[in-house]
Amino acid sequence: MRAKILIVDDESAIRQMVCLALAQANYNCLEAADAVEAQASIVADKPDLILLDWMLPKVSGIELAARLRREKLTRDIPIIMLTARTEEEDKVRGLDTGADDYITKPFSTRELLSRIKALLRRTAPHAVAAPVQVRGLTLDPTTHRVSADGRSLELGPTEFRLLHFFMTHPERVHSRERLLDGVWGDNVYVEVRTVDVHIRRLRRLLTPTGHDRLIQTVRGAGYRFSARD
């Protein structure tokens, strides 16, 4: 079955260009010009990935991304933010809000397709179906559910995969480059700084139950997931 990609952009020329590239790459393309149309398409068509423009009329892409991450129906859908903003703090803000990746306008369709392929690959269901548990923190790859001390946690697809990697590789120090390889795969476009942003988001989600302490920063080396005091 061909993956369905929703492009949300108020510029029809960009939507047409993206849809043509997606069709040639054997994807199904869905279109929306604003947040209202996007939400209607998501409910009706359940896309596998969303390409979301930052600068949308009325409701911005940033606001829509945050809203999608809060809703149970949409929190697991991968999001690539399309933005004309080039400042690093803007890119970090996009990732912090809920996007899994970003691409700066103008972009080549070849790069866009590479990003889509990599993101779909890394957010696909895990081959290992056995649940993992550490100190009351439970992750089930089959149902894509995470709970902490019996409390359900809502993680985005990248945070889920990052936590799964940590929980299945505990007590080791992982450099940012190692985490990029293990979680993001061979997507050469992802910057090392992206790792820090997603770890910060993951820690924030684990903070209410105190499980954020399991993710330790090892100065000058990277990160470690440890249940030791």
From TrEMBL:
<keyword id="KW-0804">Transcription</keyword>
<dbReference type="InterPro" id="IPR001867">
    <property type="entry name" value="OmpR/PhoB-type_DNA-bd"/>
</dbReference>
<comment type="function">
    <text>This protein is a positive regulator for the phosphate regulon. Transcription of this operon is positively regulated by PhoB and PhoR when phosphate is limited.</text>
</comment>
<keyword id="KW-0813">Transport</keyword>
<dbReference type="Pfam" id="PF00486">
    <property type="entry name" value="Trans_reg_C"/>
</dbReference>
<dbReference type="InterPro" id="IPR016032">
    <property type="entry name" value="Sig_transdc_resp-reg_C-effctor"/>
</dbReference>
<keyword id="KW-0902">Two-component regulatory system</keyword>
<keyword id="KW-0238">DNA-binding</keyword>
<dbReference type="GO" id="GO:0006817">
    <property type="term" value="P:phosphate ion transport"/>
</dbReference>
<dbReference type="GO" id="GO:0000156">
    <property type="term" value="F:phosphorelay response regulator activity"/>
</dbReference>
<dbReference type="GO" id="GO:0005829">
    <property type="term" value="C:cytosol"/>
</dbReference>
<dbReference type="InterPro" id="IPR011879">
    <property type="entry name" value="Sig_transdc_resp-reg_PhoB"/>
</dbReference>
<dbReference type="Pfam" id="PF00072">
    <property type="entry name" value="Response_reg"/>
</dbReference>
<keyword id="KW-0010">Activator</keyword>
<dbReference type="GO" id="GO:0000976">
    <property type="term" value="F:transcription cis-regulatory region binding"/>
</dbReference>
<keyword id="KW-0597">Phosphoprotein</keyword>
<dbReference type="InterPro" id="IPR039420">
    <property type="entry name" value="WalR-like"/>
</dbReference>
<feature type="domain" description="OmpR/PhoB-type">
    <location>
        <begin position="129"/>
        <end position="227"/>
    </location>
</feature>
<dbReference type="InterPro" id="IPR011006">
    <property type="entry name" value="CheY-like_superfamily"/>
</dbReference>
<keyword id="KW-0592">Phosphate transport</keyword>
<keyword id="KW-0963">Cytoplasm</keyword>
<feature type="domain" description="Response regulatory">
    <location>
        <begin position="4"/>
        <end position="120"/>
    </location>
</feature>
<dbReference type="InterPro" id="IPR036388">
    <property type="entry name" value="WH-like_DNA-bd_sf"/>
</dbReference>
<dbReference type="InterPro" id="IPR001789">
    <property type="entry name" value="Sig_transdc_resp-reg_receiver"/>
</dbReference>
<dbReference type="GO" id="GO:0006355">
    <property type="term" value="P:regulation of DNA-templated transcription"/>
</dbReference>
<feature type="DNA-binding region" description="OmpR/PhoB-type">
    <location>
        <begin position="129"/>
        <end position="227"/>
    </location>
</feature>
<keyword id="KW-0805">Transcription regulation</keyword>
<dbReference type="GO" id="GO:0032993">
    <property type="term" value="C:protein-DNA complex"/>
</dbReference>
<feature type="modified residue" description="4-aspartylphosphate">
    <location>
        <position position="53"/>
    </location>
</feature>
<protein>
    <recommendedName>
        <fullName>Phosphate regulon transcriptional regulatory protein PhoB</fullName>
    </recommendedName>
</protein>
